[in-house]
TrEMBL record:
InterPro entries: Cro/C1-type_HTH (IPR001387), Lambda_DNA-bd_dom_sf (IPR010982), MBF1_N (IPR013729). It comes from the Eukaryota. Gene3D superfamilies: lambda repressor-like DNA-binding domains. Residues 1-51 are annotated as: Disordered. This is Endothelial differentiation-related factor 1 homolog. SMART domains: HTH_XRE (SM00530). It comes from Betta splendens. The gene is edf1.
Length: 148
């Protein structure tokens, strides 16, 4: 009868709390009561649109002064976008949908508040058929022949 020792108990399987249970408010307060170490981390920019990445000098731009600022789209470019869009019979929302951007982006470009992004400018140029960059701003965009 040496195998049946009444003093030892063997637990075959005991699961710990799942990830969701471990993060619950009850689990955290229970762990605090037991004196366990709790680590909390905050996710940075969780759930945000990462299509347009934030640059390193964002903090500097928040403290924007006369000597440190990004160039904005000129009003001339804004007027060309507006004219080209209206000539095609598009609203700001229609143009934004056509180039896969938000309507606010188009509004900012037309108002001269946007920081120029070559990718967005290229999409707008193709959508309205007018040049927005270089010396020939406002002239029709020449169609490049397709390579065979």
């Amino acid at each position: 009868m040496a195998e049946s020792d009444w003093d030892t108990v063997t637990v075959l399987r005991k699961k710990g709390p799942s990830a969701a249970q471990a993060k619950s408010k009850q689990a955290v307060t229970a762990a605090q009561r037991r004196g366990e170490e709790i680590e909390t981390t905050k996710k940075w920019s969780a759930g945000q649109n990462k299509q347009h990445l934030v640059t390193k000098n964002t903090a500097k731009l928040d403290r924007e002064t006369e000597e440190l600022h990004h160039e904005r789209v000129t009003l001339e470019v804004g007027k060309v976008i507006q004219k080209g869009r209206q000539d095609k019979g598009l609203t700001q929302k229609d143009l934004a949908t056509k180039i896969n951007e938000k309507p606010q982006v188009i509004a900012d470009y037309e108002a001269g508040k946007a920081i120029p992004n070559n990718q967005v400018m290229g999409k707008i140029e193709r959508a309205i058929g007018l040049k927005l960059r270089g010396k020939e701003i406002g002239l029709p965009l020449e169609a490049k022949p397709k390579k065979k």
